[in-house]
Automatic annotation (TrEMBL):
The protein's annotated pathway: Amino-acid biosynthesis; L-lysine biosynthesis via DAP pathway; (S)-tetrahydrodipicolinate from L-aspartate: step 4/4
Residues engaged in binding (S)-2,3,4,5-tetrahydrodipicolinate: 142, 151-152
One GO-annotated biological process of the protein: lysine biosynthetic process via diaminopimelate
Lineage top rank: taxon: Bacteria
Gene from which this protein is expressed: dapB
Domain Dihydrodipicolinate reductase N-terminal: 11-114
UniProt function note: Catalyzes the conversion of 4-hydroxy-tetrahydrodipicolinate (HTPA) to tetrahydrodipicolinate.
Gene Ontology cellular-component terms listed: cytosol
Protein name: 4-hydroxy-tetrahydrodipicolinate reductase
InterPro entries membership: DapB_C (IPR022663), DapB_N (IPR000846), DapB_N_CS (IPR022664), DHDPR_bac (IPR023940), NAD(P)-bd_dom_sf (IPR036291)
Broad class of the protein's primary localization: cytoplasm
Entries under CDD domains matching the protein: DHDPR_N
Length: 254
């Protein structure tokens, strides 16, 4: 952590700082002229380090088990939060909205994926969804990932399901009668999602659409965690100007 002097705009605390994403975020914040890495906290460290260091924004890349307590702690102290950790159900998002109602100046950005290409992949998939009767998602990740399917795949499935419902599409055709459990993947709002884990992968997703005589495949690949950093830094800079809860990076990109 090096002091950058009075010109530095935001003091940033990183939670999950010794993890794969946390380490990358610390590097990116440290390298940004307008940001100061104020605190780097991981499992077993005391969160008060963040408050003592006067961090104005916290970035959380921890675990689905830890993130809600961290977020509540930040909101209660008036600290803005940028959250990449997965596991955000509608119920969890509502809980965050409740906390923020008592702290109307605090901003929280929760994004299932900070990769610009991944955000576009989700937007393209949502746009294509109404034109195809069949759709399946295949996500591929490194084998140390704790959750399946990925937050990105879950979010994509929900966007596609909403677009299908709006277009009046029913369930995708599927005659399967005998199934080995799991062979057809997870069912997220009626969209089948398949999760692959293999050494060598980072984060990848394909959305496969089908209709009579044609298919459309939309694919995104993150080969390096550096791919998430422009999105994370954008959110860090924007979150103080956006009170309340922002879900997804889309609004910030526009
Ligand atoms: N939104 C996005 O763009 C992206 C999101 N992710 C998500 O980010 C999360 C982290 O991923 P990744 O970095 O690969 O995971 P890692 O397991 O590498 O890192 C998580 C870190 O958080 C630590 N941790 C656990 N509990 C706490 C706590 N209460 N306070 C502080 N630190 C804690 C872990 O410690 P320990 O190992 O000791 O438990 C670990 O060092 C996942 O949910 C992943 O899906 C990942 C990439 C991109
Ligand atoms: O754990 C990961 O690595 C990733 N997690 C996020 C997710 O679950 O969607 C984002 C990206 O896919 C990498």
């Amino acid at each position: 952590m090096r002091e950058k002097g009075p010109a530095a705009a935001a003091r940033v605390g990183v939670l999950g700082a010794r993890g794969r994403m946390g380490m990358e975020v610390c590097k990116a914040v440290d390298a940004a002229a307008d940001l100061e890495l104020a605190a780097a906290v991981d499992q077993g460290d005391d969160l008060t380090e963040v408050a003592d260091a006067r961090a104005g924004v916290v970035v959380d890349f921890t675990t689905p088990d830890a993130v809600m307590d961290n977020l509540r702690w930040c909101v209660e102290r008036g600290i803005h939060a940028v959250v990449g950790t997965t596991g955000f159900t509608e119920r969890r998002l509502d809980q965050v909205r409740d906390w923020l109602a008592d702290r109307p100046r605090v901003g929280v950005v929760v994004a299932p994926n900070f990769g610009i290409g991944a955000v576009l992949m989700m937007q393209f998939a949502a746009r294509a969804a109404r034109h195809f009767e069949s759709v399946e998602i295949v996500e591929q990740h490194h084998p140390r990932k704790l959750d399946a399917p990925s937050g990105t795949a879950t979010h994509t499935a929900r966007l596609i399901a909403a677009a299908r419902a709006e277009a009046g599409l029913g369930p995708a055709p599927d005659a399967t009668r005998d199934e080995v459990a799991g062979a057809r993947g997870a069912d997220i709002d009626g969209v089948r999602v398949h999760a692959v884990r293999a050494t060598g992968l980072v984060a990848h997703q394909e959305v496969l659409f089908g209709t009579t005589g044609e298919t459309l495949t939309i694919r995104h690949d993150s080969y390096d965690r550096a791919s998430f950093m422009p999105g994370v830094l954008l959110a860090v800079r924007e979150v103080p100007r956006r009170p309340g809860l922002t879900v997804g990076l889309d609004a910030l990109l526009d």
